[in-house]
Amino acid sequence: MRQVAVENFQEWREKARALVAGSVPPDDVRFTDGLQDSLFADVPMPAAGSRGRISVPRAFLARAEIVSLHRDPKRWDLLYRALFRIVNDGLSNEPDELLAMEQAVGRDIHKMHAFVRFRKIVEDDGQPQYVAWYRPDHHIVKHVAPWFAERFGAMHWAILTPDLSAYWDTKTLRFGDGVPRSAAPQEDELEELWRSYYASIFNPARVNVRAMTREMPVRHWSTMPEATLIPTLVSNARAREQQMRERAPGSAEPFVPVGAELPVLAAAVRACKGCELYACATQPVFGEGPERARLMLVGEQPGDQEDLQGRPFVGPAGQLLDRALQEAGVDRSSVYVTNAVKHFKFEERGKRRIHKKPDGGEVAACRPWLTAEIERVDPQLIVALGATAALSLGGREFAIQKERGRMMPLPGGRQLLITVHPSFLLRVPEAAKAAEFARFVQDLRLAS
């Protein structure tokens, strides 16, 4: 029996490839986690046989990398058995146990995205730090941390877990030892925001305690400040249902924390019910970018992909915007990008959700969020992408094609530049696309 120690997926992949090349059957090899003592020391890899280049489907490698994050030490042996069958027998179907592991890790990744709660602390130099403690079921910290670095790129944060901790300083992602729950900071000012947010999205008309505990497992409640509200919210569900029907606020202003920093605003927007759009959208989509960007781009509202991913300009229009910014010589990471309206307004056509333009009341209701972003970012120039953004920023209707490409003053010494929304370029006739795109690039180049 060959004993093979591996510490990560890449090491397993290299050693498994060597074993398959040496025609070592699965029953003759046992993989173990990490470095072992002399009893289970690594057995030398077999010499390569006559087998040529080993090729396996990319889909298998992608699934195998996810399975490698599972906590069960048997995962390496199961993966090797599946790999051996693919190479030698041409069988590509993985056993049910591997599929179950993949699904379990996928759920764990999803829950870490949803359930990590940062607490704000202030260091001696006055720099705010955001620290969270979380207990994942599997070894997913290194896999998930880049997502948090992208989502909260402007924050100094740490995610502490029992096995491994991740640290981000706005430039570099690094990892350290795990820590116990007692090492994490206690309650802070963000706790109340989370409770307010959860209380606001709790739908008393659709209370299902069994489904709630399945999606939000009890073992995570100790690190989630909103969990303390669940017993009271459930018991008061009927009364809150009636209040929800009667309440119809017409502005986001009551939901906007005065003078708050961008991370606090981004958390608070999730509780917003300033207009009716919150009721159907998946989630609000707040802006992203440097806290002190000289240039701000303002679009209309999130689209379908933005609504699902929770980030601005990631759909087809966003991809076109990225290409135009690149041609204009503008680094998107240096620009603050947001929308005039934070929730996706749409109408359903079969299985599709079709964009529907927000009306003037919805634009006005959401303006306090945009105002708060502008005050915090303090850009020198704001580019209005389309008529809705121009209305929100300039306070009146604009003839976009007539007034685009010229600077207009805004309060606070800022300037406004109006141009088309990138989605306009997706709709123009094919013969005009190149010319219209070049004109859009020229507007962005003027802004830069």
Plain-language structure description:
This protein is an alpha/beta fold and 448 residues long. It folds into 3 domains: 2-107, no CATH class; 117-186, no CATH class; 283-447, Uracil-DNA glycosylase-like domain (Uracil-DNA Glycosylase, subunit E, 3-Layer(aba) Sandwich), CATH 3.40.470.10. Helix content is 41%, strand content 15%. The protein has 17 helices and 14 strands. The chain has helices at 9-21, 58-67, 75-89, 96-115, 141-151, 189-201, 209-215, 230-235, 237-246, 262-268, 304-309, 316-328, 360-377, 387-394, 400-403, 422-427, 430-447, and strands spanning 2-6, 29-33, 119-122, 128-133, 157-160, 164-168, 173-177, 295-299, 336-339, 346-349, 352-355, 381-385, 407-410, 414-419. Strands 3-4-5-6-7 form a 5-stranded mixed sheet. Strand 1, helix 1 and strand 2 form a beta-alpha-beta unit. Helix 12 packs across helix 17 (430-447) and helix 13 (360-377) packs across helix 14. The longest helix is centred in the N-terminal third of the chain and has 20 residues, at 96-115. The radius of gyration is 26 Å and the shape is globular. It starts with a strand and ends with a helix. Residues 36-41 have low confidence and may be disordered.
